[in-house]
Amino acid sequence: MGPIRDKPKKVATNGATSNGRFDTRDEVDISAHSGASVGGVEVSADELATHWENVSAIMRAEIGEAPYQSWLRPMSMRGIDGGVLTIAVPTRFMRDWAAAHYQDRLTELWGVENDSVKSIMMVVRSAPPFGDTTDIRQKREAADIVQRRRERGNDLSAPLDGRFTFEQFVVGKPNEFAYAAARRVAEADSVPFNPLFLYGGVGLGKTHLMHAIAWHISQSQPERNVIYLSAEKFMYRFIQALREQNTVDFKSQFRSVDVLMIDDVQFIAGKDSTQEEFFHTFNALVDQGRQIVISADKSPSYLEGMEERLVSRLNCGLVADIHATTYELRLGILQSKAHKLGVEVSVKVLEFLAHKITANVRELEGALNRVVAHAQLVGRDISLETTQDVLRDLLRANDRRVTIEEIQKQVASHFNVRISDMHSARRARSVARPRQVAMYLAKQLTSRSLPEIGRKFGGRDHTTVMHAVRKVEELREHDTGFNEDVELLRRMLEG
To answer: Virtual CA dihedral for 253, 256, 257, 259, nearest 10 degrees?
Structure first.
């Protein structure tokens, strides 16, 4: 958190609850003051800033980098009045999440820093007006980055999307590791791991994180030469250099960058000449201590048509998976998107979309855009009925249900066991583990209840299914190879 500057303070229209829990009201403007009054004694802004930095440092160490960046870093302190500390956050969703997960610990730590603080009140920052100076500043920074690239002659890099920054990335359990790794690369003065390899299904946030890294480095270290482009564009430029007999310039351009970012590297699988050039470019940059960031739809070990020596190098850095979104993460993304659009969408509509559209984030955000646009164009409120009508085609496509029989067949084939083993009473690990995976996927990919799933697996009890789900979740967290197997099966079943 940066130091607190003298500016108008904002507090809620009434105080925090008596038990010290966060208040959940929106803030309103009050008169400006430079410090805070605690028990009649004026506390300077510098003192408050010091307290806040101390509390933040402890929380950062306790909860980890990714949760800290997502939930605590955006907080800003508004002041202390009558023993009530007021903290502002950007969105209602962030306020509610922080209230549920961090309120008690924050209240305790603030009490240690300043024993006059008896409770915490969390409020939502007032939405900035259209044309707010923050938006203008971001646009100017983006324009400055583009201009610097032109002056440097860096026309190799693809354009960066101004929406794809770390601040706009919604973090949850499925993507927190990849997010933390991306921030580490973006903020580090030296290369922390090389390469950073991000992988995951379509629309889960790989490209967003790639752009976020490029934006952050370009803004914080403008002297560094960052090139971001797709693997297809890399191949196209290489072929163009071959055709024009200008490979020397091609090598010089790509091997003199500070950060090379290649998106969708699976595209060059089976392209021998391009792989050869990429292999040598990769080695040259690593030898010079330059950062490489790569993304793909699968982990390096599962990239078919990729040379073994290249796969080995892709595996030698940090490989970070972005898992499929959970319901909670999808709901958070929708709430954040609605806030950015400046529209009020009922909780029922957001929950409906989060339940129904599970394939990827692009579809999810696109669905919300359609609903909002329809409501604005025809002048109607956003209701559940209207949402179902507007998204009829999309919902029909997402209603395709994977059957338990399909799951059993796919899992049996993958682990090389018989389909009959899915129903048998055998408890050997070679059979029990695939059966547990099939139960887990049935719970994740179908709408069947636990007893229904149990009956499909030889008449087993619902508690057996619950145990299988917990066991697979535990193994996925601690066994990378097993996690990749399960993720691959899920993607194959979802088509």
So the answer is: 130
